[in-house]
Amino acid sequence: MSAGLPEGALAVLPRGARDLLPGAARRRRALTEALLAGFDRWGYDPVVTPAIEYFAVFGRWLAERERQRCVRFIEAGSGELVTLRSDITPQIARLAEQQLRERLAAGEAVRLCYAADVVRLSEGTREQAERHQVGVELLGDDAPEADAELILLADEALRAAGVTAATIEVADVGIARGVFERLPSCDVEALHGLLARKDAGGVARFAAGLALGEAPRRWLGLLCELFGAPGILGHVPADIRARWPWLAERLARLEATLAVVEARAPELHARLVVDLGEVRGFDYYTGLRLRAWAPGSARPLVVGGRYAGGAGFAVELDALEASLDADAVTTATRAGGVMIAIQSREPRARALAAGRAGVERAAGRRAWVQVGLSLETAQAAAAEADALVYFGADERAEIWSQRQPGAWRRAEESGA
């Protein structure tokens, strides 16, 4: 064991990491492929970003708290500070600046999608350090219709993955931040926490300790109350809209976005939750904030929003899988295929099994070989297969099939 590793470290994983066994790995691949296929139908082209970046790419986008969560190291040879990918959006922004500038300058909206892992130092014992995401980025279109497209696409993606009735939260982070900018110096992080908990009493006490005018004091209270169905936007007092033109503009954009969603997907519109007090998430968000929730996961299944130059969201695969597990939804069954098993370990027997596997593969079927197994052991090992071809001591082929796991039925017997 390496010096410095705790006792038994080779038997465990670092905090925030986990393995996926074959069944779970196949399901993840199926979910990833389903999501990417859905994004492709909407015109999102795939890109792959590197697992490592110069830290400066993330330093331009992330707040200090998130910078500290980057896994950093010095690049051999150059001495430059390098980091493992902790977020996709800064990489997409770098890619756009380097390679998509002409398309964007010509007025083209660029749609990109990806499947990638991100690594962030975990802040707690239960938080995952490695996250697996499939997402989209829409660059060069800052209209309300573009925000609506992301909301519609997020819902379609979740339905394609098997989540049929997710709760989708939408917000404009510029609303709460605009209020904060007009407050006297105070503990904004504490206010964030109160709003996140919808602690109206706590917010009132917080406001009482500040020298505020009537409008800011009223609006701080309303940030806790204006949470619910899209119709909640109609509850914003007209006098506050009139007094704060910047707020009226933000609200009008959000209303325009929701109107597009309602026109195209009334059922989805009825499931939306609007939260005007939402301030959580990366500091680079400038407008729309999008999250989706479903039973079974303590974390959102979708996270995203609008930032300078574009907008996007990521489907969090770990949270998605937790929700599917809680709902007893199976999105991937047995791997299928044909296992070729032979009792003997002799070279001639191995060649016989390999030849049969080659025939199966040539016919387009998945096939693999196991040697030195009894029939009973071979059937247990072939739990993922649809069929088993077993060569016993006489090297005659017995063909078995299973429609349900463990329910083997002999189909035929033929000479080798």
Automatic annotation (TrEMBL):
The lineage of its organism: Bacteria, Pseudomonadati, Myxococcota, Polyangia, Nannocystales. Heteromultimer composed of HisG and HisZ subunits. GO terms for molecular function: glycosyltransferase activity. Belongs to the class-II aminoacyl-tRNA synthetase family. HisZ subfamily. This is ATP phosphoribosyltransferase regulatory subunit. The keyword Transferase applies. Required for the first step of histidine biosynthesis. May allow the feedback regulation of ATP phosphoribosyltransferase activity by histidine. Its main location: cytoplasm.
